[in-house]
Amino acid sequence: MFTKFNIANFEVENRSVRSATATATCDLKTGIPEQKFYDIYESLARGHVGLLIQEHSFVSLRGHAGHKQFGIHTDEMIQYHKKANDLMRAANDKIRICCQLAHAGPNGGAANKIQINEATAADFEEVVQQFKEAALRAKKAGYDCVQLHSGHTYLLSQTISDFYNKRTDEYKASDFKLLRDVLEAVRTVNIPVGIKLQCDDFIEGHSMNAVSACKIISALKFDFVEVTGGGQGVAKYSTIRAGKDQYYYRHVIQEFKAQNLLDKQPVIVTGGFENVEDAQMAFDDGVPLVGYSRKFLRNDQFLIDGDTKKCVRCNQCIGAIYKGQDAHCTISERERQK
Ligand SMILES: Cc1cc2nc3c(=O)[nH]c(=O)nc-3n(C[C@H](O)[C@H](O)[C@H](O)COP(=O)(O)O)c2cc1C
């Protein structure tokens, strides 16, 4: 896990990935970071993570998630992304940084949010353009790569799921046209492109599931794929499960293996890993990179400090965001106050 690995045209120093994690430390309306945002990322960079995937940045106000999210929707935002990247690289000159491009779609907070079954082709074409422009901004801000957020019932993930997407036109779920168009548009920017892909909605009898994920990965060429899943409401599991489950997507990795995708495609698996010992289960399955989200909130130095701070998966970190606070670990906060 402390060996190097190549993704597209760059090398990552080790196999640990900080999976995108909203800090909710940006202005609610403008998406401009507060000082706390920079402090969080500088500290994360010092923790020797190989690839740091920034929190989701909204590509347009229509795709805003509704909390204190980072923005990449205008050229003015480039300077804030660059400032964070420069700080991280000064703290760790080997770090690789990825910009996560997101459109919350039906899940967002905008008054005119996109509903996938009612959207027009013009709505979707506008989204494609917005992802392309955001990728260009990410390139100008000095990121090593971008990641399309196609998970967690955000816009792209809903369009590839026949549970959410009931369309029968060219945008029907099985054709994944919006995702294909976004990828093609972002490719013209000439920056490595990965995806955080919904690989299981956990809704009985419907895509997305491991088999449909393999179909998408085989049809579209991404520089890396991060495995995720889970949903809301009817879904059997949430993305951010409470409790002790480990390695949430082993069944997806087994399907990738059965279809020989692990040999052809750099893969990150995220979900349910508490520490590097846990991650060994995924490395043993042949997965090259393992992602962590909540663990970095609990202890952003866990890769190098001999970690004793357990994340108990109480999910109060994400709960804080919905209360209008920044995403923080309440256990660590209490420990600091002692
Ligand atoms: C506070 C919080 C914020 C998150 N923000 C994002 C995000 O911005 N983008 C994203 O793709 N996933 C986000 N996630 C999901 C995580 O990246 C990850 O997929 C999930 O938490 C499972 O990984 P874990 O078990 O290591 O926490 C977030 C999770 C948490 C707890």
From TrEMBL:
It comes from the Eukaryota. Keywords: Flavoprotein, Oxidoreductase. It holds the Pfam family Oxidored_FMN. GO terms for molecular function: FMN binding; oxidoreductase activity. Residues 1-302 form the NADH:flavin oxidoreductase/NADH oxidase N-terminal domain. The keyword Flavoprotein applies. InterPro entries: Aldolase_TIM, NADH_flavin_oxidoreductase, OxRdtase_FMN_N. The keyword Phosphoprotein does not apply. This is FAD/FMN dependent oxidoreductase. It comes from Hexamita inflata.
